[in-house]
Amino acid sequence: MPEKVLIYSRFPKAQMERFGERFELLNAAGKPPHEVFSADQLADIRAMITAGGTPLRGEAMDMMPKLGAIVCYGTGYDGVDLVAAAKRKIAVGHSPGANAASVADIAVTLMLAATRRLPAADDYVRGGSWAAAKPSPMMRPQAGMLGRKVGVYGMGEIGRKIAARVAAFETEVGYFSRSQHDVPYQYFPTLGALAEWCSVLMVAVRAGEDTNHAVDADILNKLGKDGYVVNISRGSVIDQQALVAALTDQTVAGAGLDVYAKEPHAPDALTALPNVVLSPHIGGHTLESHVAMQNCVIANLEAFFAGNPLPYAVPLG
C-alpha cells in the first residue's frame, strides 16, 4: 500500500498529481488538519507537504504523533518552526535551487519594467495617447541599464543567477550577504553601504528573523530618489509601510514587487501608485520550476519512507 502523506497548504490540484501517483494523499487544502480529518486518520501520518511560507508551528505538528518529515514545496521554509521540528526530531526538507532560474528571470523582468516604466507605456498605447500625440511626464526618457549600478542583497542560488543576468546588460554589479563569496562582483560589508552605492537594489535574501524588515526607511533613503528596489524574496524582508511612504513621496523612484507582507493581498496603497510594478508571487511559477520542485519533494519523501536521510534537507542546527 502507498504511504500516506498530508497536504498541509493549499495547492492547485495539478501540482499534486505526481505525488498522488506515488502516495496516498490526505489534502487539508490549507485548513487546520483536525478540522478536515479525524484523530485516527492523522495518527498514521508520517510525512507532510507544505508551502514554505505557510505558518507551521509545533501545535500543528503535534496533531500527527508519528510525523517524521515535513517537506516544503519550493526553496523557502520560513513558515516552518524549525526549533519545534528539531525538538520533535522531525526532518525538514525543501527544494533548493529548483526554481532559481525562473525567479531570477522575474527579478530582471520587474527591474526592466520598473526602470523603463513599461506598465505606463502599455497604458499610453492602449489608451490612445500615443496615437493622439498627447504629452505624458511618464514617457520622459529614463536611464537605461548601460553602466547602471545594480546591488544584489543575498548571494545564494537566486542571487547568483540575478547577478549573472544583470551583468549581461552591461551593468556594474555589487552584493551584500552574510559572507563573502568567490564571485566576480564587488562585495559590500553592509546592506546600507550597498544601498548607497547602487541605483537598483535586488532583494534575493532568504527570509528569516535576521532579515525581517532589513530593507527599512533608512535603507530606502540611502537608495535615493533615483533608486529602484526589486523584491522576489519574501514580503517580510521589506518594511512595506516604509516602502509605500518612500514611493509616495519619491524618496525612491520606483519598485518591482513579486511578494508582499500579507499575501494574496497587495494593499491599495501600493496598487494605486504609478511607479510600482506588481506581480502575484509568480517568480517560481514556470513549468520547468514545478517539475524540478516536484522532483525534490518526491526524492525527499521516498528517502524518508525508505529510512534514509533527506537528500534536500534543511539544517536544523
Report the portion of residues in β strands.
Answer: 15-25%
Figure out the total of helices: 13
Largest sheet features? 7 strands, parallel
* Main sheet strand line-up: 8-7-6-9-10-11-12
Terminal residue distance? 34 Å
**Derived structural class:** alpha/beta
Radius of gyration: 21 Å
Extended strand count: 12
- Share of helical residues: 25-40%
Low-confidence stretches: none
Shape assignment: elongated
Q: What is the N-to-C order of secondary-structure elements (H for helix, E for strand)?
A: EHEHHEHEHEHHEHEEHEHEHEHEH
Mean pLDDT: 95
How would you concisely characterize the structure shown here?
By secondary structure, this protein is α/β, with parallel strands linked by helices. It has helices at residues 13-20, 33-36, 39-43, 58-61, 82-87, 100-115, 118-126, 157-167, 191-197, 217-223, 240-248, 268-271, 287-305; strands at 4-7, 24-27, 47-51, 69-73, 91-93, 149-153, 172-176, 186-187, 200-203, 228-231, 254-257, 276-278. The strands form two sheets. The chain has a seven-stranded parallel sheet with strand order 8-7-6-9-10-11-12, sandwiched between helices. Strands 2-1-3-4-5 form a five-stranded parallel sheet.
